[in-house]
Hints:
Blueprint: H1 18-21, H2 25-38, H3 49-78, E1 82-86, E2 90-91, H4 96-103, H5 106-114, H6 120-126, E3 131-132, H7 136-150, E4 155-160, E5 168-172, E6 175-179, E7 192-193, E8 199-203, E9 206-211, E10 217-222, E11 225-237, E12 244-253, H8 260-264, H9 268-280, H10 296-319, H11 327-330, E13 331-336, H12 343-354, H13 359-369, E14 370-373, E15 384-386, H14 387-393, H15 395-415, H16 420-426, E16 429-430, E17 436-438, H17 439-446, E18 447-452, H18 455-465, H19 467-472, E19 477-479, H20 486-492, H21 495-505, H22 526-551, E20 560-565, H23 574-590, E21 599-604, H24 612-630, E22 638-643, H25 648-654, E23 660-663, H26 675-681, E24 685-688, H27 694-701, E25 707-708, H28 713-722, H29 726-732, H30 734-744, H31 757-765, H32 771-790, H33 792-804, H34 811-823
Parallel strand pairs: 1-4, 1-13, 4-12, 13-14, 14-18, 18-19, 20-21, 20-23, 21-22, 23-24, 24-25
Antiparallel strand pairs: 2-3, 5-6, 7-11, 8-11, 9-10, 11-12, 15-17, 16-17
Helix pairs in contact: 2-3, 2-5, 3-4, 3-6, 4-20, 7-34, 10-12, 12-13, 12-15, 14-15, 22-33, 23-24, 23-30, 23-32, 29-30
Bound molecules: N-[(cyclohexylcarbonyl)carbamoyl]-beta-D-glucopyranosylamine.
N-[(cyclohexylcarbonyl)carbamoyl]-beta-D-glucopyranosylamine (F58) binds near residues 134, 671 and 674.
Amino acid sequence: VQLPQALQPTDAGVSKSSHRTGMTVEDLKQAFLDNLFYDQGKFPALATQHDYYMALAYAVRDRLLQRWNQTAATYTAEGSRTVAYFSAEFLMGPQLGKNLTSLGIYDRVRDAIASLDLDLDALLDEEPEPGLGNGGLGRLAACYLDSLATLEIPALGYGIRYEFGIFQQDLQDGWQVEKTDKWLRLGNPWEIKRPEWGVEVKFGGHTDSYLDQDGCYRVRWVPEQTVMGIPYDTPLLGYQTATANTLRLWTAEAPESFNFESFNSGDYLGAVYEKMISENISKVLYPNDDSAQGKRLRLTQQYFFVSCSLRDMLRILIGQELPLEKFHEKFAVQLNDTHPAIAVAELMRLLLDEHHLNWESAWSITQRTFAYTNHTLLPEALERWPIDLFGQLLPRHLDVIYEINHRFIDEVRIKFPGDEARLARLSLIDESGERYIRMAHLACVGSHTINGVAALHTELLKQDVLQDFYAMYPHKFQNKTNGVTPRRFMVLSNAKLTNLITEKIGDQWVKHLDQLQQLEAFADDPDFQNTWREIKLSCKRDLAVFIQQQTGIVVDPHSMFDILIKRFHEYKRQHLDVLHIITLYNRIKANPDIDITPRTFIFGGKAAPGYWMAKLIIKLINSVADVVNRDPDVRGRLKVVFMKNFNVKLAQRLYPAADLSEQISTAGKEASGTGNMKFALNGALTIGTLDGANVEIREQVGAENFFLFGLTTEQVYKMRAEGYCPQDYYQANPELRLALDRIASGFFSHGDTEVFKPLLDGLMNHDPYFLLADYQSYIDCQKEVGLAFKDTARWTRMSILNTARTGTFSSDRAIQEYCDDIWNIQPVKVAQPDDVPTAV
Ligand code: F58
């Protein structure tokens, strides 16, 4: 489709005056002042810091819009194949700094703002975190959107615009307390509401069948409830490209006509009540990061955003005058875990019932559309929905799933005749007790490709969790090791290291992260080492100031910053780190003059509000911190800090300042990890198990530059099979015993011997994550770490090599692999506006 000249986006009659699009310091300053006046309705004497932030955000958004419209026009004109990334979570992080980096105007804006006697950092701080995700899975989606735009791949992110994101974590007496996250309270300058593209979504009711005019037997869904899905779009600009893709998040609203009947019959409150129920759908993000409890509202959320998104894609397809049969040619849909897996049934329903395709055509389109990424090996995290609940909410989809299952089971019978046990294991319906729908099975059957997120994880999927699907469809399985965006986790958050690297090897590494390899040549250069060390120290000093502001704790920037940040879960073993701290503390108490490497232990992360043991581990960290930080015998050699409310903003302060990255999950439990990559990229050394992507990080950086400890997955499996007895380790190891006994004695809890009992009993009697089995290996390895840190030249060399050799963990590499091996999609060039600067 060729747009008429007058409608070309950059000439579409809009003002191109410099205050909207100009990129000089003077343009940016004027734009900021104009926005403050005309959009915020404020003048400097009355304006708050937040007004300044908003004015700047709108000024930057104007620059984005120019590229966004240009991108949309290009995609429309070219009818481009498009990736639709379906995810219940997008943990985007703050947008202002990121957009300044993408536009290449960070320094100019700093100057423009400074010329008004304002401080850019203070304005950046005003932006609330859009916390629309729990952890790794949601942040991965955000990194992938950044790479898609940077690689100039047409893409849409589809998800939910939660009114309340992940809760804010506070601490009271060392315990986690949750507060509602009102991130939208002061407005969100990055989004544009598009009510004209709202869609109706139905729920409940029943199905019936009828004969259409042609005498065809058809099924009709007679739903009970309707809600409106309203899209809000956020532009996502690639790094120094003109490509600005869209994140389209759906909000639930009551349909306008909705309350007439009740209203007319006088049931005003009833009508308002129903409106409230509709709006509940996109109210709040579920804060669990592992267990999938079968909650009706959660299934409602999933179906809501999936249905909205597929309908939106059909609108786009039809708008481009493409036939339905080309749906899978126009769109490649990636299912980010099983949360959007209901899309398989919904696309079938839309094609069958609303567009009257036959089953075979509809199924062929569906299977060629979807690909599924699995993110977990934990059985308790695999989503299943009780049939009754499912049938009440989505009766037509239940029929469709039964039919998919019926045909699938026939296929299995042909491939594995007479293997009834296999049929039961593979069935989309779990009939071992109460009947459930297994969403991973629906995703596997309905997708052309299934991928794990690290090499080890993919192998374990094939051998363990999804082994029957692997036997059925070996060709569907692929590995796609995760990656992280260097734009946010290096350029934006670690300007000092970014500048040093750019001085040495030029600026192309930001888009071609493999080029970091060129740093290897300087790993032993004393001048370079010195500068490298000074930068790390300077980042640590910045963090030390922040820690003191936040917690009142004074930490020594010369001590080793030993950091463990991630969601709290027993399998991630934060409490193993605590046992190390207590062991060092016990050694100091036994011998106050002992020579130990000074360390600052920094923790951060949230626990699911209902995950009691995880919350107890947070309490334990804070209790140990209280004792260790105050004890004069320690003489400041150990400090323990818990940074509350870990989020993307905080993460950006922590990675650059880390010496040691703790990646200590039980082997075989962490699918990949992505924090591990961010640390290594920023020159931290890893102490880790052979789990998730740690395995590949170690391969890349070299075994001699990685601190390995612990059981392997095979050893864990074997121990479990042979009967593991944690008590034996307790009995045999005096230091371990002393550490556990100190907790039990109430030493860290003002004499309270009850509070940590459940934790200790769990460890002594079950220890499902093999802490006691891995304890000694961890302690020994930490001793190596301590010694290595004292040898500054050696440590610095290792640090440089970690950065130099982790280029492969860029999300650009990961996305390129998805494009080539799964999506079969090519970049589309969007013309740059004339005035885009090119400097880093
Ligand atoms: C994480 N999963 C994996 N799930 O644990 C991690 O190893 C991996 O690096 C990351 O995905 C990216 O692949 C994860 O974050 C969740 O948060 C879900 C949220 C919704 C409920 C179920 C868990």
